[in-house]
Amino acid sequence: MFxxxxxxxxxxxxxxxxxxxxxxxxxKKGGKTSSIPVEITILNVTKKDAMAKPAPxxxxxxIPVEVQWKAEGEARLVNLEAVLKTSNTDGSTSEVKMMLNExxxxxxxxxxxxxxxFAREYTLTLLGKCIWDGGQGTSRANKSGAFPLPPDAKK
Length: 155
Description:
The protein has one helix at 2-28; strands at residues 39-47, 53-54, 61-72, 76-88, 93-100, 106-113, 119-132, 135-146. It folds into two domains: 1-31; 39-146, Sandwich (Immunoglobulin-like), CATH 2.60.40. The chain has one helix and eight strands, in the order H-E-E-E-E-E-E-E-E. By secondary structure, it is α+β, with helices and mostly antiparallel strands. The strands form two sheets. Strands 1, 2, 3 and 6 form a four-stranded antiparallel beta sheet that branches. The protein has a four-stranded antiparallel beta sheet with strand order 5-4-7-8, with no helix packed on it.
């Protein structure tokens, strides 16, 4: 009788393990899982020096920088933060952080610069938070490049 009860306990344990593992195995069967974060791709970063406006505090100017991206994946993007860092013509650096509309595919960052100084090179990072059935995570995209300098920029 003791031996029969031990086999029943082992059988019961194995059955429970298989039942608990079945949903995870079923998710991976098609090669995709619902826990893949969103893939963010930065398509374009355009500085618009001609559209610069005086800074509200009177110190320098604010330059719009248009950002275009795409987000693909089975997870849902729930927020999106942009961080733009620039190296400037006077040797200084600038940084702007801003939350973007995660449902959009483009946004405008407002880069504050001193008068007579222009952003030369940039690094843009988009950091998104994602959720999916049973989980959450983050997605990140980086893009670096050089902005064209306007003709009135000091060389």
